Amino acid sequence: MKMSDATQSSWRSxxxxxxxxxxxxxxxxxxxxxxxxxxxxxxxxxxxPIMNELGWPTKYTLMIGVIEVAGTLLYAxxxxxxxxxxxxxxxxxxxxxxxxxxxxxxxxxVLFSIYLGLFMWGGLWLRDPKLRAVFPIRTQ
Length: 140
Fold this sequence. Notes:
This protein has helices at residues 5-12, 16-42, 44-54, 61-76, 81-101, 106-110, 112-127, 129-134.
């Protein structure tokens, strides 16, 4: 499918903020697919002790991986990005709750979901003018 000339022109002439948002979103997508979901599908020996430490039965590993992939793919598509972000925020909230429950270190483990969520929403906010209209930065 070929982009129209107007679409190509608007894609190239995007502001630095939009490009920063695209890069942030791209890095988030790569992290979620590569570092989080991929091991759940292809490296069960790596994920099994982590799931056990968190108190999750290993039978849920595949389901969590599917939710991660589905949410991340929705996030990657501009029309469904907000839905993907909401789904992933729920997943990140559950991950944070699991870390709190086992009394993990605050800044490195518990708040990691918050860091990811801020990165995810920040990238989306920078690249989506409709989201910026809903959540504007006030200067006064």
